[in-house]
Amino acid sequence: MSKDIRIKKGLNINLVGAAEHTTSKAALSNVYAINLLDFHGLTPKMLVKEGAEIKAGEPIFYNKNNENMLFVAPVSGELIEIVRGARRKILTIKILADKSQEFITHDKLDPATASSDAIRSFLLKSGCWPFIRQRPYDLIADPETTPKAIFISGYVTAPLAADLNYSLKGKEEFLQAAITALGKLTPGKIHISIGKSGDSPLQGLNGIELHKVSGPHPAGLVGTQINKIDPINKGELVWTISPQDLVILGETMLSGKFNAERTVALVGASVKEPKYYTTKIGAEVATFLYASGVNTDNFRVINGDVLTGSTVKPDGYLGFYNTTVTAIPEGDDYEFFGWNKPIFNKISNTRALTFSWLQPKKKYNLTTNTNGEHRAFVITGHYEEVFPMDIYPLQLLKACMVKDLDEMEQLGLYEVIPEDFALTEFVCISKQPHQQIIREGLDLLHKEIG
Amino acid sequence: MSDKRLTFKKRLHILKHHYRGKKMAPAFNAFHTFLFAPNETTHSGSHVRVADDLKRAMNTVIMALIPVLLFSFFNTGYQHYSAINGFPQAFSIWDHFLTWENFWLGFKLVMPLVVVSYGVGLLIEFIFAVIKGHEVEEGYLVTGMLVPLIVPVDTPLWMLAVAVVFGVVIGKEVFGGTGMNILNPALTIRAFLFFAYPTWMSGDKVWVHGAVERTGTPDAISGETILGYLAQNGSYEYSLSDMFFGFIPGSVGETSTFLILLGGLFLIFSKIASWRIMVSAVIGSLVMGLIFNGVVDAGWISTGSKFYGLMSFEFWQHLLVGGLAFGIVYMATDPVTGAQTNRGKWIYGFLIGFISVMIRVFNPAYPEGVFLAILLMNVFAPTIDHYVVRGNVRRRMKRLKHATILPKDTEQAEVPKVETV
């Protein structure tokens, strides 16, 4: 059964540098790294020491709050460095890869017959659990809880993000295995959303509730879809997982090996040949970035899309959850009378001598310039135009800024995560850091209410 | 930037680093960012941002005010000379209105108001920015332009300066500066003038240049506004087109409904000002006007009543005279002091229009009410928003009754439990 969701409010950010539908194999990376900042709020406890030889799929650390939740190495090799920051906080764990890869193998698991406890413990010990994320608070799902439903978005609207209809093709077997397994972890439904048009590999799966979504970004964000399908109430819990990670989940169950391989879209205006690469979680970005070539010296590499990704150096590493790597020009230059002259080459949602409304289909080459300075909230009504949830965005942001827990709860902070505020942040004339405000609000709420 | 020459841009860049962390940095940055959009890049969240910034938004409002300002130059001269020499019989725009003589007189009288308003206001903004160590925010760019347009032309400059100091410090800076104020600063300035120096702000003399100083002499001229005539149940000799195009006495920039309408359309088109507030304020004033017309038609008040003149005034003509149109387009739409939710904007705008006409009719001392109505609604805007937002909260609470809250224990998890809160 499929239900249609039509999103009207929003804004598509059309950028140059979309990936062509060809996939190459990325060069092997010498060093792979797990970036601990990918796991917000996690306190890791190391299981192996520097210099240890480890196999692919071997646990290297666990969650201090739940010692069953293991995090595994994407490749086999030598653990060469544990990079620590202030107060000895672990930031990055680097592994020098072996020439020939050795895997740890688990007993295979048939998701159709396995019990929910067996699935749970398999996912925890195989290192697949961290792919499952929970709302509220945008954290790795707590294995001791049961969500009311699981949401998966197969509809991509984020600027330049990897096209799932392309990158998931042929992976139906793994997807189905993962869905069958996850279905046993919730008494509720598994909601999968796909684009209204297009041929999604997700639509033929069994045991799901299919939704067809149309409309501009953020229609593809799972948060928007949750809000329209079955909004989160106080005390409720939902899980989300991205379709690419479902593939790893399914493959690990069927083969018994944790295969960290994934298809990544390399995109952005600074990339000469934007296209898809197969590589592994934690691989050095440079191994495929320079294979496609860059066309400027001064660019920024982003783990993820331009709205929600994190900055990474070209010699940095592919993030745990990322399926897109973007490179766009840095905008660290002044612009003469940039505040009053007519603008044709940048996106705007106003018409104040900005002319992007004339060509809604045009693709833009946006830089990282903020186009203005940080100011107090002044102009109202612009966020609402790009925010389709039944939430007052400005009021929720202000509640987070003044740390008013009651207001945060009542205005719907449980339903959102930072990425839902990426578009309001994009259109913000006052250049306020919306995602950071929401993140801090969520952390506070989690700490105080739990 | 590979060019080795020391361009103007690079010199300023070096200077910016020189000033970094120093007391005068905000002052320097204010000038620097005026010339060049800064080289700041994104550090958290979205890596790309829209083209607009607050300067552009404010500049858009100023652009919508420029035609009104230019018109006020001519009208100031035209009203003055016509009051002395009599209104021309066969009025022609080119021969009688858009003349160099009119422009020059108006320019000489209005520009000092603009200069004092900006000079004093921006000076205070800079001082506060330097003391508090934050950047100079753009809020005063619009306020500074609004202030000279909403005062009578002969307002003494020292009086204006005092009022600007009061308005900016008490109306804005004590609340934390741009974006934090409760009352519209321009209207706070206007209200201060009105209550501190009422003889300069109301009556039948102040609206035309020279009328006050000629009082009592054989050359005395009238400076009465249409609303003033109506309040005294008198008659006036202005045609509808005079009212619409603005060839009437009044505050400096409020007279031309036509240009204000164009400015309003520009602001709506550019999405800088809220069309909801403008439309609902127009509806509100029409409704109140209709009610008064209805009272007159029903014969509930006699022609002798002191309210008869204003109450019997055609309801839609209220929009053409006085400051109503100007207030609706440029002041009610102030996003900081107005309602911030879309539904709240409808209520807020409607009440501004409604109360403006009500005060206008019933105010015995001064037949105009827009600025008081907007200030009043500024105070109530947070309350309106509060109730609109409560609607959303109630919806969420209602939903909560059907929440599926599952126990945090894997063994019992097989049985879903529906909890009623």
TrEMBL record, chain A:
Family: Belongs to the NqrA family.
UniProt protein name: Na(+)-translocating NADH-quinone reductase subunit A
Gene Ontology biological process terms from the UniProt entry: sodium ion transport
UniProt EC number: 7.2.1.1
Swiss-Prot/TrEMBL catalytic activity: a ubiquinone + n Na(+)(in) + NADH + H(+) = a ubiquinol + n Na(+)(out) + NAD(+)
Keyword Lipoprotein appears in the UniProt entry: no
Gene from which this protein is expressed: nqrA
Entry-linked HAMAP family: NqrA
Keywords: Ion transport, NAD, Sodium, Sodium transport, Translocase, Transport, Ubiquinone
A Gene Ontology molecular function term of the record: oxidoreductase activity, acting on NAD(P)H, quinone or similar compound as acceptor
Upper lineage: Bacteria, Pseudomonadati, Bacteroidota, Flavobacteriia, Flavobacteriales
Domain called Na(+)-translocating NADH-quinone reductase subunit A C-terminal: residue spans: 263-312
Secretion signal, residue range per the UniProt entry: none
TrEMBL record, chain B:
Predominant location: membrane
Cross-referenced Pfam families: NQR2_RnfD_RnfE
Assigned GO CC terms: plasma membrane
Topological type in the membrane: Multi-pass membrane protein
Reaction it catalyzes: a ubiquinone + n Na(+)(in) + NADH + H(+) = a ubiquinol + n Na(+)(out) + NAD(+)
Broad enzyme group: translocase
GO biological process, any: respiratory electron transport chain
FMN phosphoryl threonine sites (modified residues): T225
EC number(s) from the headed UniProt entry: 7.2.1.1
InterPro entries listed in its UniProt record: NqrB, NqrB/RnfD
Compartments (UniProt record): Cell membrane
Keywords: Cell inner membrane, Cell membrane, Flavoprotein, FMN, Ion transport, Membrane, NAD, Phosphoprotein, Sodium, Sodium transport, Translocase, Transmembrane, Transmembrane helix, Transport, Ubiquinone
GO molecular function terms noted in the UniProt entry: FMN binding; oxidoreductase activity, acting on NAD(P)H, quinone or similar compound as acceptor
Cofactors demanded by this protein: FMN
Domain of life where this protein originates: Bacteria
Tagged with keyword Iron-sulfur: no
Transmembrane segments: 109-129, 149-170, 182-200, 243-268, 275-295, 315-333, 345-363, 369-389
Family annotation (NCBIfam families): nqrB (TIGR01937), PRK05349.1 (NF003756)
Functional note: NQR complex catalyzes the reduction of ubiquinone-1 to ubiquinol by two successive reactions, coupled with the transport of Na(+) ions from the cytoplasm to the periplasm. NqrA to NqrE are probably involved in the second step, the conversion of ubisemiquinone to ubiquinol.
Protein family (similarity comment): Belongs to the NqrB/RnfD family.
Assembly description: Composed of six subunits; NqrA, NqrB, NqrC, NqrD, NqrE and NqrF.
Name of the molecule in the record: Na(+)-translocating NADH-quinone reductase subunit B
